[in-house]
Specification:
Number of domains of chain A: 2
Distance between the termini of chain A: 34 Å
Largest sheet of chain A: 2 strands, antiparallel
Strand content of chain A: 5-15%
Radius of gyration of chain B: 22 Å
Helix content of chain B: 25-40%
Structural class of chain B: alpha/beta
Number of helices of chain A: 5
CATH class of the largest domain in chain A: Mainly Alpha
Oligomer: heterodimer
CATH topology of the largest domain in chain B: Rossmann fold
Order of helices and strands of chain B: EEEHEHEHHHEHEHEEHEHEEHEHH
CATH architecture of the largest domain in chain A: Orthogonal Bundle
Strand order of the largest sheet of chain B: 5-6-7-3-8-9
Number of domains of chain B: 2
Helix content of chain A: 55-70%
CATH superfamily of the largest domain in chain A: Winged helix-like DNA-binding domain superfamily/Winged helix DNA-binding domain
Number of strands of chain A: 2
CATH topology of the largest domain in chain A: Arc Repressor Mutant, subunit A
Structural class of chain A: mainly alpha
Radius of gyration of chain A: 19 Å
Largest sheet of chain B: 6 strands, mixed
Order of helices and strands of chain A: HHHEEHH
CATH architecture of the largest domain in chain B: 3-Layer(aba) Sandwich
Distance between the termini of chain B: 21 Å
CATH superfamily of the largest domain in chain B: P-loop containing nucleotide triphosphate hydrolases
Shape of chain B: globular
Largest interface: A-B, 21 and 24 residues
Amino acid sequence: MLDDGAPIFSQIAESLAEQIAEGALVEGERVSSSNELAAYYRINPATAAKGLNVLIDDGLLEKRRGIGMFVAAGARERLLEDRRRRFAERYVEPLVAEANRLGIDAEALVALIRESDQSQGGIKV
Amino acid sequence: MTPTISITGLTRRYRHQTVLDDITLDIEGDCISGLLGRNGAGKTTLMRILAAQEFPSAGQVRVLGGNPVESEAVLRRTIFIREDQAFPDIKVRDAVRVASWFYPHWSGELAETLLSDFDLPPNRNIKKLSRGMRAALGIVMGLAARAEVTLFDEPYAGLDAVARQLFYDRLLADYVEHPRTVLLSTHLIDEVADLLEKVVVIDHGRIVLDAAADDVRGSAATVSGSPAAVTEFVGGRPILDSRTMASQESVVVVQSLNDFDRARARDLHLRVVPLSLQQLVVHAADRSLENVKEMSA
């Protein structure tokens, strides 16, 4: 479930952020406690708590004393905004670099993008 | 806060052999730590000393603020479960009852649950148990005691993978409800890596790594690709190991890599694979690694 690279706590934080961005965890919903996360991922509870704290510090989760942690209002939109900002760096730049390496020119690349993923109705733009 | 376990300058010699060599180590309370290292590295001796089953040749050991030697107050708050734990020749049920008298936080309920989880027949004589069943009984006692200091020394001789997973799950579940100081020695490092908050690696009687598990993870990576690109990427970074094959070179870099490093590695067409805790321990135990110590500093 977890890989060997990044520290576990940041993988936990990322996985929760992913669920918020995808809408699997909606705003105002309670998220799993550190103990629940520890049991599920089979990790040290202190590590799980550290992961939750990352999201609290980022304002994506809020703590309600004695009840638990909840997805903060506006969390999803903030995550999506962040992803849009990083889209070029994370996806477009490597794509163009590999296309250059393979001698695929801009036109061919655009054509490939248009053709891609027809099963999901193709690109909508 | 005083650490739960505090070891200063601990040395243990047998005639001509130094088994523990000037060990200094603090373990804070409510934490699961791994004591890792090869067979013969000194793990068992260290744990035996913590449990007052063996004595230091030099140095000081404090457990729960006191000297464990002949201190009943400390020993009742400590449980030590070792590989091939020796038990008296009595029934499982009776052994559990005897243990319950000794440990103040003993949970009879947990003991019952664990006995059934591990399929241990309460009326069977311990002598008639298989090796794996005896190991399971040690685990039942180690967990049910809920001792403030819980020492497990390779507690799973003869246990199969399913039973070991059961041990890890039950340990975690009960630890969450009743936090305590757990020190677990093992060479099945990949199995326990994610449970650990602290990692201590011992080799030839010395501590070669003492760090938070989170800091150790991702603190080294194997970088491979064309030799020229590898050389360019590595630059002055500390390295552990390097292997070459025709047009490929593979180097273990001891440094955590940031996003910039990763992007650069991508540009150079390098493959970057983080080292697992197990691999790191193998490297750390391979030689006395100044690099590994530095990286955790």
